Amino acid sequence: MGRATIHDVARAAGVSVSTVSKALNDNGRMAAETRARIKQVAEDIGFRPNALARGLLFNRSFTIGLLTNDTYGRFTLPVMAGVSEALVDKGVSVFLCAIEDDPALGKIHVDAMLDKQVDGIIATGKRIDRSLPVDLSGLPVPVVYAFTQGAPDSVTLTSDDAQGAGLATDWLLGIGRRRLVHVTGPQDFASVRERATAFRAHAGAGAEVLCGVWAERWGHEAVAQLWERDGEKPDGIFCGNDQIARGVIDALRERGIRVPQDVSVIGFDNWEIMADQARPPLTSVDMNLKELGKEAGRTVLALAEGKIIEPGLRKLPCRLVVRQSCGGGSA
Amino acid sequence: MGRATIHDVARAAGVSVSTVSKALNDNGRMAAETRARIKQVAEDIGFRPNALARGLLFNRSFTIGLLTNDTYGRFTLPVMAGVSEALVDKGVSVFLCAIEDDPALGKIHVDAMLDKQVDGIIATGKRIDRSLPVDLSGLPVPVVYAFTQGAPDSVTLTSDDAQGAGLATDWLLGIGRRRLVHVTGPQDFASVRERATAFRAHAGAGAEVLCGVWAERWGHEAVAQLWERDGEKPDGIFCGNDQIARGVIDALRERGIRVPQDVSVIGFDNWEIMADQARPPLTSVDMNLKELGKEAGRTVLALAEGKIIEPGLRKLPCRLVVRQSCGGGSA
DNA sequence: TCAAGATGAGAAAAGCTTTTCTCAAAGAAT
DNA sequence: ATTCTTTGAGAAAAGCTTTTCTCATCTTGA
């Protein structure tokens, strides 16, 4: 019972364990024929080295911890998938630690990870301007922050909100829209402020920004505000997330305004389930969260291997996913 | 550098490592005063035993693997959180393995988990009538399936679709609705069939079931079908998910039909972000996925400890979350 | 006072893998 | 034929913790 050990292979091949080890790791000197035979026996027997024993020996567990306080959101899941994907072919597995917003739970999880000798920790959350309720400074392993507020002098990865906003704004300008408005979320989000600044920089200082909440009804309401006052109406609306965009599109339709013929709308997040189901489907800025997760994985691994990575905030570019709500597609 | 080992504690306390071990684990015979002193030293020094070494010794890694092919969906995240929560205070950590729908990737992850000597594996997915693209039978560790199709003779946990549908139907009947309709997703989903059967059993064999797709526009369309034909109109609509319910509510509003005064609507999934933002907020059936995850965690741990759990399909009850789309709330 | 029992603490082995040393045998060169 | 070199393979230690023995010392009873 149990899994085959290197001793089983040695016995089956009629050699010593050290010879088996050397054969399998292409180490040491030995007859090529012996090496091949041992490899064959190991394969036949289904031997795979015990990672616990290797970890003990190398002081390296080939394991990292992923800490998140977001158990429902749509942001962390792609990040996690990216981390997992980046590390799996390096033989590194990922501990998932859901800590809610509970500092005590956070500490328990961090201690458990350290006990298990993780090679590093990635912290991720639901908002890039809030930090996790747990102190990760002074740990004996490297820490990388992804899509959450990092400690000073740490390596922190986020999406580039300004660049994403610029992408959307330029696209609207590129297809000939001139009267642009940005309808977005609450101003206390750093993302909101950064996107708004970039929007104004690209669209012109006079371009209007309406802050509200992250909800469809705010999209409705913003359209009402914009259309029920005097003056020129916008012909391009860049929204702070896909839900707001969804509300905007619905409100425009209810007013008989055609999207994209009369007004172009762009969302943010590229939340497929929302963007695809909007009528018309929503052009949206994608934050490349999976890519961000991959990068976080690669980075923490590099740090674990002793490579020097300059600390600081690194912003990864967004991309624009073109659907029909905007016009100007290549089709 | 590195973490303190039991040898460091022994040296600091002026005793042997075996004495330290016995002191900390409340094992063996020794002077109470010695024991207390050693414990104090260990605490001061910040000693925590190396889980790799313990794992090697006990043939137990205090680790389980969580396999999922759902990297974007909203079903697995609460399941994962539940698993993590159930196991953290047993000292068990969870490996997250995102395998997409790739059998090769699945095998790699399973092998990696076995290498790391996981005590068990939980498989979870995005659909309870599809199985993961990887064979988990004949593994040397116990496997529990949660919210995905399990192998024959395995322990499989899902939500009780029939009971959930019954809950919703009875609620509608209980508040006096008599002309009920069930608007749901594609019939090739087992969940759809099961809920429909339960709906008919509770609402009467003649009660109508409309199958379509899992999308808002289908909710719209179903309302159009129902209202644009002759005969009595429904006064209670039970929807197969919250997106459909959302479409139904919007379509009713557009027709001037009041929810909940004229028609009661109930959704399924209790997807907060959708249910809360509907106008009015949606009463919905919650599958208790976090609870399901917890149960899966407890079960796999029990199996890992050698307890006998009868194999088979276990269905965990749903609950109804009452908001305003239905009337009949206690308020 | 001597033997027997109780008590406290250390030595060693096990769990699995890898690496460094060591050693023996075979082949080559003188 | 003898010595040196090369080659092939095994022994042992390290990495950390726990448990089972074993041993020495102290106490107690006869």
Structure description:
2 copies of one chain form a homodimer. Chain A has about 325 residues and is α/β, with parallel strands linked by helices. Chain A folds into 3 domains: about 5-50, 434 Repressor (Amino-terminal Domain) (Orthogonal Bundle), CATH 1.10.260; about 60-160 and about 290-315, Rossmann fold (3-Layer(aba) Sandwich); about 160-290, Response regulator (Rossmann fold). Helices cover about 40% and strands about 15% of the residues of chain A. Chain A has 12 helices and 12 strands. Chain A has a 6-stranded parallel sheet with strand order 2-1-3-4-5-11, sandwiched between helices. The first copy, chain A, has a 6-stranded mixed sheet with strand order 7-6-8-9-10-12, sandwiched between helices. In chain A, helix 1 crosses helix 2. Chain A is elongated, with a radius of gyration of 26 Å. The model of chain A has no long low-confidence stretch (mean pLDDT about 95). At the A-B interface, helix 4, helix 5, strand 2 and helix 6 of A face helix 4, helix 5, strand 2 and helix 6 of B. Strand 2 of chain A pairs antiparallel with strand 2 of chain B. The structure holds a DNA duplex (30 and 30 nucleotides).
